[in-house]
Amino acid sequence: MIGVHHVQLLIRYVLAPLVRLLWRPAVHGADRIPAHGPVILAANHRAAVDTAFIPLVAARRVAFLGKAEYFTGRGLRGRLMASFLRALGYIPVDRGNARAGLAALAAGREVLAAGGVFGIYPEGTRSLDGRLHRGHTGVASLALSTGAVVVPVGLRGTERVQPVGRLFPRLARVEIRFGAPLEFSRYEGLEGAPAIRRAVTDEIMDAIADLSGQTYVDSYHRRPGETLPAAA
């Protein structure tokens, strides 16, 4: 029976080298990810493949959130999919209820409390207009409550690898830039202050904008048919 450990070996020794061979991603600053301790990788989000590219070029295992239904498929195909996602570091979270946001933060805190690396997209969704939008303050809550350092990440070109609506990725130039780690110990004990969470989030988004080269707009991203969240 194929277990998560076997899939991890397959990803490390077969899939990751294959991705580097086919897409030849230009990776800058990967050594800026601390080798030990809790780390948050905060990135811009242009395509579904972002969540695959980041773990495949990072030296440490990166945990991302994944829809719970991806892990519940039946039969051999369903078990293989679940094993593959767990090997990549995905954490199943039910996003279909009102407590999804709290569950996501709880999952992130668990990873960071164990000294792991947690990946997050502060915008909350993929950018459909190519701009970098205002970040939600969950990333700040995680950093302040766990003491984790934040490494900003700028992804370029992944929207050409898998444009919205395209099922299979295509070959295109990809660039992944890791920024200098940001630490916020100066705000210790102030996690509950909305103004502090906003200041921390804005500092992270400024760093992401520098790395991604995107135009920053100080408004939350809204997909067609969505209502804007309350300001934070």
From TrEMBL:
InterPro entries per record: Plipid/glycerol_acylTrfase
UniProt keywords, alphabetically: Acyltransferase, Transferase
Coiled-coil intervals, chain numbering: none
Top-level lineage group: Bacteria
Pfam families the record matches: Acyltransferase
UniProt domain Phospholipid/glycerol acyltransferase: residue ranges: 39-158
Molecular function terms, GO-annotated: acyltransferase activity
Keyword rRNA-binding carried by entry: no
Protein name, per record: Lysophospholipid acyltransferase family protein
The species this protein was found in: Pseudonocardia kongjuensis
Taxonomic classification: Bacteria, Bacillati, Actinomycetota, Actinomycetes, Pseudonocardiales
